């Protein structure tokens, strides 16, 4: 008897999802707990695993369609694995083989590579490959488990097309390069990001204050202990853990930074949960480090590395994105010199880190070259006064420039 594939409850605030990608096609056999479909919400993406070994008998909701929590999006039938190995290969629809036909005129040397890549080619990606006359190995797979998604094919085709468009003219008289446009619907996550950014600008009284930090001492400390740290904890010592600790120190001195407005009241906490912005496959996400006051440097680095991996694989859980007293974002990894970050409501503050660049500064009456970083604190002026914001940012600067302050608590 067919089992219903339903949209699971994923959080109190989530009422609907968008079907992101069916990883297998109708009739394709999969093992127990193999991811069969990816769902997107306005906060994160998650996968639904196969309830047993078997195959999808019917897909009700196609990729891109919306579904409410509890809706039936397909039907699954339990079945034994087909004789002769994986049934996934035998039960793939014709479209799975179409990329081979499209590449039949190519060199036979690519045949093995195409076959190897097609093992994890999703049906939608196969159709896109066939339409564009591409082979699977020509696109970089970014899906879970190395799966090739439709978006990967489109991205690879767009990249290769850019060079061609430079030499492609709109007509035979050489009037100029061909001008093209592509319309891409917003994903639920992108919509939510847009809504929250606009909401923050509209509802909060945002103000940004800046400072600069001499990174010399913290860089020396990191270089001195990075090998021992890696050997002991199995994780690299980065700058983010220093800034998390510095922010914690600053919030202990200026608790207003971690306060939140709730109606006509201000909420102060006796714990500190700090969000760390990381780039994911579907956009920027801000997973939260819980009870930072209890975390060591190694625990912070391990947690951030885990967040980064999950974000890249679109595996961040909704519970990891909820709450938070404050956010840290690092535009420096992209080469940013200076920016004004936007508060993540209902939080009242966000610290923006930036790139480290050597430049001349005045020190003890002398001009010296030092590795400097600009930092920006955007805060909700309804909750935090200017004096408090400047005091907090100066404390972050002091702690990073003299890391021993964190140990001495001075």
- Uncertain stretches of 5 or more adjacent residues: 86-118, 163-171
Shape: elongated
Secondary-structure element pattern, one letter each: EEEEEEEEHHHHHHEHHEEEEEEHEEEEHH
Largest sheet report: 7 strands, mixed
Q: Structural class given helices, strands, pairing?
A: alpha+beta
Q: Average pLDDT across residues?
A: 83
The helix count comes to 11
Strand element count:
19
Helicity, as a percent range: 25-40%
State the separation between the terminal residues, measured CA to CA: 68 Å
Q: CATH superfamily of the largest domain, please?
A: Chloramphenicol acetyltransferase-like domain
Describe this protein's structure.
The protein is built from eleven helices and 19 strands. It is of the alpha+beta class and 410 residues long. The chain has two domains: 3-165, RNA polymerase II/Efflux pump adaptor protein, barrel-sandwich hybrid domain (OB fold (Dihydrolipoamide Acetyltransferase, E2P)), CATH 2.40.50.100; 189-408, Chloramphenicol acetyltransferase-like domain (Chloramphenicol Acetyltransferase, 2-Layer Sandwich), CATH 3.30.559. The strands form five sheets. Strands 9, 12, 15, 16, 17, 18 and 19 form a seven-stranded mixed beta sheet that branches. The longest helix is centred in the middle third of the chain and has 18 residues, at 150-167. It is elongated.
Q: What is the structure about, briefly put?
A:
The chain is an alpha+beta fold and 410 residues long. The protein contains eleven helices and 19 strands. Helix 4 (123-132) runs parallel beside helix 5 (150-167), helix 8 (240-253) crosses helix 9 (297-312) and helix 8 crosses helix 10.
């Amino acid at each position: 008897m067919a089992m219903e594939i339903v949209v699971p409850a994923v959080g109190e605030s989530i009422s609907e999802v968008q079907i992101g990608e069916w990883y297998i096609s109708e009739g394709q056999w999969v093992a127990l707990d193999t991811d069969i479909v990816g769902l997107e919400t306005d906060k994160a993406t998650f996968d639904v695993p196969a309830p047993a070994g078997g195959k999808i008998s019917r897909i009700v909701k196609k990729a891109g369609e919306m579904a409410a929590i509890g809706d039936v999006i397909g039907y699954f039938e339990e079945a034994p694995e087909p004789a002769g190995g994986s049934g996934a290969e035998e039960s793939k629809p014709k479209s799975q083989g179409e990329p081979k036909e499209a590449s039949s005129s190519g060199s036979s040397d690519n045949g093995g590579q195409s076959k190897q890549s097609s093992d994890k080619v999703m049906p939608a990606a196969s159709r896109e490959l066939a339409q564009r006359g591409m082979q699977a190995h020509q696109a970089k797979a970014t899906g879970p488990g190395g799966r090739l998604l439709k978006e990967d094919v489109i991205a690879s085709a767009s990249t290769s097309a850019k060079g061609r468009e430079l030499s492609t003219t709109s007509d035979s008289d050489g009037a100029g390069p061909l001008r093209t446009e592509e319309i891409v619907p917003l994903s639920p996550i992108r919509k939510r990001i847009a809504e929250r950014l606009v909401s923050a600008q509209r509802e909060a009284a945002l103000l940004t204050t800046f400072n600069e930090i001499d990174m010399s001492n913290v860089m020396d400390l990191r270089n001195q202990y990075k090998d021992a740290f890696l050997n002991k904890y199995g994780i690299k010592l980065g700058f983010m853990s220093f800034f998390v600790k510095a922010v914690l120190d600053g919030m202990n001195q200026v608790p207003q930074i971690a306060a939140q407005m709730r109606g006509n009241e201000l909420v102060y906490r006796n714990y500190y949960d700090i969000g760390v912005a990381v780039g994911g496959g579907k956009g920027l996400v801000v997973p939260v480090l819980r009870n930072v006051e209890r975390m060591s440097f190694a625990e912070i680095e391990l947690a951030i590395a885990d967040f980064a991996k999950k974000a890249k694989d679109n595996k961040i859980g909704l519970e990891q994105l909820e709450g938070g007293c404050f956010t840290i974002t690092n535009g420096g990894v992209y080469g940013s010199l200076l920016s004004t970050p936007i508060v993540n409501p209902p939080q009242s503050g966000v610290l923006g880190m930036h790139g480290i660049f050597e430049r001349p500064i005045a020190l003890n009456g002398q001009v010296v070259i030092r590795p400097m970083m600009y930092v920006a604190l955007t805060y909700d002026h309804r909750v935090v006064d200017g004096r408090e914001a400047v005091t907090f940012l100066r404390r972050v600067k002091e702690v990073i420039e003299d890391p021993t302050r964190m140990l001495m608590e001075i």
